[in-house]
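Database export, one record per block. Field names are fixed; values are copied verbatim from the stored entry.
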Amino acid sequence: MKKILALSASLLTAMAFVSCADEPVPVVEPEPVVMSSVAMSSSAAPVVIKEDPREVRRRYLQGLLDKLMSEDVYFEYDAAELNPAARQLLAEVGEILIREKAFAIELQGHTDDRGTESYNMRLGDKRSQIVFDYLTGLGVSNTMLTTVSFGEEAPKSQGEDEEAYAKNRRAHFNVKISE
């Protein structure tokens, strides 16, 4: 009889473990604690000093900019029309700029080094202007945007081949946080 009771108790215990294994264990994420420094008091207990919310926001905005505006808008040779990839990128940028008003953006038009200096300055201006027009057409405030042409003066890539030329035919975002 003792063996039957011991065996029954063992079976019940095993069944309890098996039935608990099917239920997922809830995971509770801890709340993040933002600290700029931890100072020690005279009693050696740490004192947590919370970070300035403006600095947290600044870092958030900077991360947003770094993520979404690290790419340039590229153009075909001797052209200032937006291709589908450029329109997609500008749609994503436009969504952010409509939501976040804390940016001042200089749209920089660039060209490769083929053509005269004056022609390339005009082409760079057309490229920055078409990006400006597209973004404002999406609803971005024109007060956030300025345009400038660098023509061929600030190449992204050195070289005299099509790969280098293609990297230089672009509109670049020079972004600053204006808050």
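Remark 1: Residues 106 and 146 are 5 Å apart (CA to CA).
Remark 2: Confidence is low (pLDDT under 50) at residues 3-9, 11-38.
End of record.
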